[in-house]
Amino acid sequence: MNKTNIKKMAYELLIKSHCTRLPVESIRIAKQLQYIIMTYDKLIERFPSLDFDSLIDRYGNAIILNLFGNYHIYVNTRNGYFDANWAVMHEIGHALLGHVKRHGQIRGESYAEKHRFTPSELAADEFASMALCPDIILDAMHWTNDTEFIKFACIVPDNQASEKSYYLNKEYIKAKQKNNYLQFQASEDQLLSLFSGYINKYGRRVEIAEEFYIDFSGLRKIGA
After folding, report:
1. Residue 16: which domain range?
2. For residue 121, is pLDDT > 70?
3. Band of the pLDDT at 221, cuts 50, 70, 90?
4. Can you give the pLDDT at residue 218?
């Protein structure tokens, strides 16, 4: 599946989930989809033979398991919410992209080199990036250049925020200049409409900040 179709699927998920602001909460969306969510720690409590380090080494920060058509996501929360938010959306991507169709089939957000760059892992990463950091929203809010801002606004790990900023300022801008980026305009317009209140609120914050900006650089320090 190409990037355009993955982006369309991610946007349609946000629309279906009635997302109206950032950050997009992947755990809330997983629960809306009626996926069962459990932490690695709770999983180990239920199955003491499992080992935390082995889970991380083999599957990364999250696992998705298909049990008779019901999806179970197990996630490592010890690294904090940024990693967990990304990992859960990555696993949702595996499910919606059809990577775990069979009963008993399991997928993990594996960081092992032999798995990390497989087509299915790259596709799930692309899905997570488009769902948690939607291009059309970041562009509308002029949040394309600041990696730190993307990280905290979207609640994603450092490396993913950096990759998103790079993409927005390279591929996305080029496509936008060629008018190639609106390949599914109905979905993009609908998503912009859902986020309009949030975008407008952000805009007003910028206006207020500019109106009350004072340059203190020329003032002497107390006691100088």
Report:
1. 3-199
2. yes
3. very low
4. 43
219 located within any domain: no
d(CA 65, CA 101): 10
Residue 222 lies in a domain: no
Sheet holding 36-39, edge to edge: 36-39, 70-75, 62-67, 106-108
The answer to whether residues 107 and 99 touch, using CB atoms and an 8 Å cutoff, is yes
Instruction: Write the burial class of residue 149 (CB in 10 Å: 0-12 exposed, 13-18 middle, 19+ buried).
Output: middle
The DSSP code sequence of 61-102 is: TEEEEEETTEEEEEE--TT-HHHHHHHHHHHHHHHHTTS--S
199 and 205 in contact (C-beta within 8 Å)? no
pLDDT tens track for 53-106: 988 888 889 999 999 989 999 999 999 999 999 999 999 999 999 999 887 788
- Residue 205 is assigned to a structural domain of this protein: no
Domain count, the chain: 1
The three-state secondary structure class of 193 is: helix
Residue type, 214: I
Q: What's the whole-model pTM score?
A: 0.85
Closest by CA position to 17, among listed 27, 3, 6, 5: 27
In a domain, 173, yes or no: yes
